Structure formats: structure tokens, C-alpha cells
TrEMBL record:
GO annotations of cellular component type: cytosol; nucleus
Organism: Exidia glandulosa HHB12029
Full protein name: Bola-like protein
Listed GO biological process terms: intracellular iron ion homeostasis; protein maturation
Xref: Pfam families: BolA
Amino acid sequence: MPVSQTDLEIALKNVLNVSHLEITDTSSGCGENYSIVIVSASFEGKTTLARHRLVNELLKDQIAQMHAFSQKTYTPKQWSDLQAKEAADAMMT
């Protein structure tokens, strides 16, 4: 049974204080491969591994139905810094 982007969004937003969320179906719409970017204050003070474990636990039922799942997790500060760096890099090219 394919997993929908809405299922993932609801599962994450119900538990995490999400300030930014990008969910991309990388399986051409069949719902078997997803890549997500999550920005949440809930990640403050956690290592990348701890963040990924938290997300994996929240989505364990959905991930069990997928072929592939990748995630990038950021704190609001990290996300802001990344956006500023990308904007600066874009201006230099």
C-alpha cells in the first residue's frame, strides 16, 4: 500500500513543532520513495543521529511500507544559516 505525502505530513506535524517541511515523492508518484526536509525547534540540542531516530520512530509504520526514505533535519537556526549561505552563493555566480 503506497504512503501519501499527506500521511507523512500529518504524522510529523502532530508531534514535532515543524516550522518548515518539504516532502518529495522520488518514486514518480507511486508513494514508495520519499525524501524529506524537516525544520523543527524540537531538534535543538539533538545530534543528527538522534534527530533521525526520532523521525524514524514517528514514521515507523509509513517507512515499513516504503522502498526508500531519506531525511535532512535542521533546527530553525541551521535552516536560516543554510538559506543565507545558498543566497550568498547564488549571488556570487
